[in-house]
Amino acid sequence: MRLRAIVVDDEPIARLRIRRLLDADSDVELIAECGDGETAVGAIRREGPELVFLDIQLPEMNGFEVVKHVGVERMPVTIFVTAYDQYALRAFEAHALDYLLKPFGKARFADALKRAKQYVAGHLNREALKQALATLGQVTSRYPEQIPVTQRGRVVFLNTSTIDWIDASGNYVRLHVGNQQYEIRETLVSIEQRLDPLAFFRIHRSTIVNVRSIKEIHPWFRGHHLVVLRNGHELRMSRYQHEAARRLGVG
Fold first, then answer.
1. Does CATH number 3.60.20.40 belong to domain 146-247?
2. Which of 77, 157, 223, 242 is most buried, judging by how many CB atoms fall within 10 Å of its CB?
3. Does domain 3-138 have CATH number 3.40.50.2300?
4. Whole-angstrom Cα distance, residue 228 to residue 55?
5. pLDDT attached to residue 92
6. Closest Cα to residue 228, out of 204, 209, 243?
7. Is the pLDDT of residue 129 over 70?
8. So where are the chain's domains?
9. 196: pLDDT confidence band, cut at 50, 70 and 90?
10. Is residue 138 very low, low, confident or very high in pLDDT (cuts 50, 70, 90)?
11. How many CA within 13 A on the CB side of residue 81?
12. How far apart are CA 152 and CA 148, in angstroms?
């Protein structure tokens, strides 16, 4: 049977990534895309899809709240999408069939989609699968949630999630948070090693960007891309950053 699917993610780049992967599968029809939880609840109730790819971190109403509003028993087969594996256990408690940890590759996506097809066809036991996969959510992150910086003689602790991008300046790096910037004595390589690689991508030899701060990406020239942030700032992504391009869905 052909599965009708809905993709829910507030990041256009993430929706595009899943859409491209689904385009290659003739067994799945993408019937709607939603950028927020409220729209997702309406679309799921109205369209009655067999499958939904549901981001957990959504504005106003997160993925778990979407499940609550629709009703667990009325939810279609659900594959949660998240950049943070600590959400995995809650995902399975919310009756998820599987979850995709950003950034995921084609093979991992294909595996999750295969499970969804098998479940809809009645070939999988949901409880057994949930118990087997729930252990994946017990991994504890080793990356700090805050970075101390000195400002006017005092130490300020920045939440790493608020950092939009980072650039290098000799033996210093500048952390850009909205319209503010903070300079610390550290190399770009060393701070990159301290940051969660699921959230921060090196897009240039002197630039690291927080993927959740990205609004859109445009082709530029000679293989380069222009990365536009939600605050309007534009960054250049080098054509040599093949891994970042692949993970952002433009490679």
1. no
2. 77
3. yes
4. 21
5. 64
6. 209
7. no
8. 3-138, 146-247
9. confident
10. very low
11. 23
12. 13
